[in-house]
Amino acid sequence: MAYQAFYRVYRPQTFSEMTGQSHIKQTLQNALLYNKTTHAYLFSGPRGTGKTSAAKIFAKALNCEQAPVAEPCNECASCKSIDAGSNTDVIEFDAASNSRVEEMREIIEKVRFSPANSRFKIYIIDEVHMLSNSAFNALLKTLEEPPEHVVFILATTEPHKLPLTIISRCQRFDFKSHTQVDLVKRMIEVLTDAQIPYNEQVLKIIAQAAAGGMRDALSLLDQVVSFSGDEMTLEDALLVTGSISQDMFYDLAEALLAKDIGQALTLLEQLVRDGKDPVRLVEDFITFFRDLLLIQTAPDLHDMLELASHEERFEELAKQFEAATLYDWIDILTKTQQEMRFSNHTKIYMETALLKMVQADAPVRPAAASAASPELEAKVTQLEVLVRELQHQLKNGAAATPATAPVEQKRRQSPQSSFKIPVGRIQEVLKNATKTDIQAIKTNWATVMAQLPRSHAALLNEAEPVAASADAFVLKFKYDIHCQMASENQSFAAVFSQLLEQYTGKAYSPVFVPDVNWLKIREDFIKSSGLKAGNEEKQGDPAEEHPFSAEGEAAQEDPFIAEAERLFGKDFVEIHED
Which terms in the Gene Ontology molecular function aspect does this entry carry (predicted)? Predict the structure, then answer.
């Protein structure tokens, strides 16, 4: 017989063989013993937590020749045929590849027929959330009033995608992710049965990479066993799972603690060159620092370590940290992990996180404090004298010396953004700007935002159109980083222009500018164009005024305010500025 993967060979055949999920096993077994089974069940939870296995075990127990029983016997003809997949009364249906209403109607038409050889006709519908709306509607009536001999078991990893009318007609069981201890225990059972030597630290690495899924854990174990040959090693497990060694965690943590940012960035570069994903690295470092914090606060709970192994070097490293430092680092990495979801430059975010961690103001242990150099002490003394002189001058009513002004001005200067501002294009838009164009864009702004992909819409949360001509408009961003990311995204401008053209009838191309730069460019344009000084010389209809002249700005109306005044009259509309 051909080789079978571990997760297939060691799939549980009884409830007692299932790992975890004790709350579900006990409920189903009691229902079987006391003949209190219902017509529809919903098994939901993360992948690899036993949903389909539990459905098959439950189906065997329902149709077992020894019923009512809490466990299937696995010896009778019914149990054996269900295991072999040849029982015509237990139908497994994959909704991912059969999502159309036609397939569902074909099933429903056969529901009314009695089972051929069993007590119940059981339908196991896997990935049920993939069914179309029409298929759900076709299934709904049958779920509400099924024949007495039919049982439906629906399995899904995304229960929120199911209609509430379907969920309300089922008994719902939520499967939980397996703990690392459960995964390691099951892998030891499998390796012991297969007579394969193992290293428990290797199994912990596999369990960490599996993220709570038993099927993922056994698949990775299969890969590591095949890759290693006679003996599984830590290096093999790290290579197969894409994890990093504990020594690398030690080295990077010690570099950060010593504020050696050069060494920390070098280690990060080495990890990325080796093919490690920065997003996965952030998650692993959060877990490692969590383990350090755990050993600090509860040294006896070494069994709860998720990533690190309990050894002398780990304990010594934990003693070098202040708890406040670990809290700050975990907070920085958690925020970085959230920001990474909206960017393709994940390595840059990881490097920035390391810089923040080195520069964080953490408390210093008195024992680790080194003596200050004589030059530093002399500088501190000089500054103290200067501070006392300034305080004396201020006390006597004297003004600060002019020498302090450049220092203050230099300190207040904001860092320059790397984004190159397209000043020429912005001024061209301002020269030809009209109120009609900017109002057309603002009126359809919310509609266009709803049509954009999530990655594009996320960039526009703090953005606003501020000026528009017949073929372009200026888009102002609150943050420089969002402005730069939008300008570097080649598909963003094209998609945005196409959507605007659908709703406004014009193909406006966006011109990006940060908030601070926009205010300066706008002010320079008004001064250079003489819009403020030349208003009195202009004649004609105020509606013809430039949008950035005094009259033009006053005449620019919010489209929602204009619509309210049209409906109710200006006398009945009051505008309050928040």
Answer: DNA-directed DNA polymerase activity
Distance CA 236, CA 502 (A): 55
Give the SS3 label for residue 123: strand
Pairing of strands 472-477, 463-468: antiparallel
Domain 246-359's class?
A: mainly alpha
DSSP for 220-233, please give it.
HHHHHHHHHTTS--
| Neighbouring C-beta atoms of residue 364, cutoff 10 Å | 11
| DSSP codes of every residue in 431-479 | HT--HHHHHHHHHTHHHHHHHS-HHHHHHTTTEEEEEE-SSEEEEEESS
Instruction: Estimate to the nearest angstrom the gap between the alpha carbon of 31 and the chain centroid.
Output: 39
Q: Which residues pair with 464 in a beta bridge?
A: 476
- DSSP β-bridge partners for residue 23: none
Residue 77 CA to its chain's centroid (Å): 48
Mean pLDDT, residues 532-543: 42
Q: At what angle do helices 278-297 and 323-340 cross, to 10 degrees?
A: 160
Pairing state of beta strands 150-156 and 121-126?
A: parallel
Instruction: Say whether 499 sits in a helix, a strand or coil.
Output: helix
pLDDT in tens, 309-328: 777 778 888 888 888 888 88
Encoded tokens for 70: 């809490």
What CA–CA distance (Å, rounded) separates 207 from 216?
9
279 pLDDT tier (thresholds 50, 70, 90): confident
Domain 6-174 coded CATH 3.30.300.130: no
CA atoms within 13 A on the CB side of 192: 7
**Type of residue at 463:** A
Q: Which CATH class is domain 180-241?
A: mainly alpha
Q: How confident is the model at residue 366 (pLDDT cuts 50, 70, 90)?
A: very low
- Residue position matching structure tokens 């620019």: 556
- Measured CA distances, 132 to 146, 172, 455, 557 (Å): 21, 21, 26, 45
Please state, in angstroms and rounded to a whole number, the distance separating the CA atoms of residues 307 and 25.
30
Please count the other Cβ atoms lying within 10 Å of the Cβ belonging to residue 59. 26
| 43 and 159 Cβ atoms separated by less than 8 Å | no
Looking at per-residue pLDDT, the higher value among 565 and 176 belongs to: 176
Query: 0.85 cut: is pTM over it?
Result: no
How far is residue 14's CA from residue 72's CA, in Å, rounded to a whole number? Answer: 7
Distance of CA 565 to the CA centre of its chain: 44
Classify domain 423-570 at the CATH topology level.
GMP Synthetase; Chain A, domain 3 (3.30.300)
Contact (CB, 8 A) for 202 and 234:
yes
Q: What is the pLDDT of residues 423-462, one digit of tens each?
A: 888 888 888 888 888 888 888 888 888 777 776 777 777 7
Q: How many other CB atoms are there within 10 angstroms of residue 549's CB atom? A: 19
Distance between CA atoms of 289 and 317, rounded to whole angstroms? 11
End-to-end CA distance of the chain: 75
* DSSP letter assigned to residue 129: G
